[in-house]
Amino acid sequence: MAMSKGKQLWLTVFLGLMSAMAPLATDMYLPALPTMQQDLGITASLAQLTLTMTMLGMALGQIFAGPISDRYGRKWPLAIGMLFFTLSTIGCVWAQDIMVFLFFRFVSGFAGASGIVISKAIARDVCEGPELTKFFAMLMMVNGLAPIIAPVIGGQILLFASWRGVFVLLVAVGLFQLLATLVYKETLPADKRLKGLGDSFAKFPMLLRNRYFLGHCLVQCFVFGAFFSYLSGSSFVFQNIFQVSPQMFSLIFGGIGAGLMVSGALPARLAGRVADVVMMRGALLVPLAGSVLLLLAFSMGAGMAVILPVLFLTITPLSVLGASSFSLALSRQGKNAGSASALLGFFSMILGGCMMPLVGIAGENTAIPMCVMMIIGYGLGYLVFRLMIVPEHESA
């Protein structure tokens, strides 16, 4: 579908913000995790469980949001999701009990999942081929702003408000996204929608029987599992091991997020010249080597001058992996884009959500569990890539 530059810019910003629901909902309060732990009198693992509930909610929410958007269109499922994200985040602001807080975090993740999965389906509605790869890369760049800005904002909020102030700002974000959704014009015409909701869910077994598509799901499952291990452990590593302030941690985290944004420009520039599968290979091998070096560095008691460059090298290729893998996986799905995007989103979050509390199981003063989980995640991701994705490209 041909787009004017104005429409492309609007969709890039709109979909970029929607696809950034995960970092917006989690990264903004990462600097506040140790403070929240002390305020609520809970363990590090229980504090990290608040991230887990958000990720599990987002993983399960995408399973429903994708098929629903294939059946009823993109606009109204997205608007309803943003409405419930806003309401449940208000619940997080007022929750006094950790169990109540965990419940609202799950609901906000479940509702916010609509933004993640439907934004990718909309991209598939309007683009295909190399243009789809370029558009996904642009989304990753906009998406990359969230890990830069969100923790910095969260750290600054802690200077004059409690950790609950972070969620007040998230309420405002939800309201803005709701209003933006109401302005958005539907991109899935009625004649291209699936005939019944049952048909939408019936696509899941068909998609998972596709070895190539399942390979992309598993690669994202393992790689993002490694990434979320870093996500949940980094605030405790830097604030408890290296004794940095929440504000300094937010700057460190934001700097790595800037690397994610810059690397997100590579697929757009290389699309049509370098095969997506080649970009995927590099985006898996570099983090695998980096995570091994990271484990060695922490085991030897290395300082931040060594840890930060290695961590930067390990995390930043994720944008390249995300853009190339999503493009390859969705390019063959057509009207099943919503269901396919839902499965990819589910797999990219479910393992990470489950692993988050394990990062803190050995206490909040060691980085070894985080490093080990990152090595396992990247290693399994590369193994699946070699066995399930590469063979089809070689035969082609």
Automatic annotation (TrEMBL):
<dbReference type="GO" id="GO:0042910">
    <property type="term" value="F:xenobiotic transmembrane transporter activity"/>
</dbReference>
<dbReference type="InterPro" id="IPR005829">
    <property type="entry name" value="Sugar_transporter_CS"/>
</dbReference>
<protein>
    <recommendedName>
        <fullName>Bcr/CflA family efflux transporter</fullName>
    </recommendedName>
</protein>
<keyword id="KW-1003">Cell membrane</keyword>
<feature type="transmembrane region" description="Helical">
    <location>
        <begin position="102"/>
        <end position="123"/>
    </location>
</feature>
<dbReference type="GO" id="GO:0005886">
    <property type="term" value="C:plasma membrane"/>
</dbReference>
<dbReference type="Pfam" id="PF07690">
    <property type="entry name" value="MFS_1"/>
</dbReference>
<feature type="domain" description="Major facilitator superfamily (MFS) profile">
    <location>
        <begin position="11"/>
        <end position="394"/>
    </location>
</feature>
<keyword id="KW-1133">Transmembrane helix</keyword>
<dbReference type="GO" id="GO:1990961">
    <property type="term" value="P:xenobiotic detoxification by transmembrane export across the plasma membrane"/>
</dbReference>
<feature type="transmembrane region" description="Helical">
    <location>
        <begin position="342"/>
        <end position="361"/>
    </location>
</feature>
<keyword id="KW-0472">Membrane</keyword>
<dbReference type="InterPro" id="IPR036259">
    <property type="entry name" value="MFS_trans_sf"/>
</dbReference>
<feature type="transmembrane region" description="Helical">
    <location>
        <begin position="282"/>
        <end position="300"/>
    </location>
</feature>
<feature type="transmembrane region" description="Helical">
    <location>
        <begin position="41"/>
        <end position="64"/>
    </location>
</feature>
<keyword id="KW-0812">Transmembrane</keyword>
<dbReference type="InterPro" id="IPR011701">
    <property type="entry name" value="MFS"/>
</dbReference>
<feature type="transmembrane region" description="Helical">
    <location>
        <begin position="135"/>
        <end position="159"/>
    </location>
</feature>
<dbReference type="InterPro" id="IPR020846">
    <property type="entry name" value="MFS_dom"/>
</dbReference>
<feature type="transmembrane region" description="Helical">
    <location>
        <begin position="251"/>
        <end position="270"/>
    </location>
</feature>
<feature type="transmembrane region" description="Helical">
    <location>
        <begin position="306"/>
        <end position="330"/>
    </location>
</feature>
<keyword id="KW-0813">Transport</keyword>
<feature type="transmembrane region" description="Helical">
    <location>
        <begin position="76"/>
        <end position="96"/>
    </location>
</feature>
<comment type="similarity">
    <text>Belongs to the major facilitator superfamily. Bcr/CmlA family.</text>
</comment>
<feature type="transmembrane region" description="Helical">
    <location>
        <begin position="212"/>
        <end position="231"/>
    </location>
</feature>
<feature type="transmembrane region" description="Helical">
    <location>
        <begin position="165"/>
        <end position="184"/>
    </location>
</feature>
<dbReference type="InterPro" id="IPR004812">
    <property type="entry name" value="Efflux_drug-R_Bcr/CmlA"/>
</dbReference>
<feature type="transmembrane region" description="Helical">
    <location>
        <begin position="367"/>
        <end position="385"/>
    </location>
</feature>
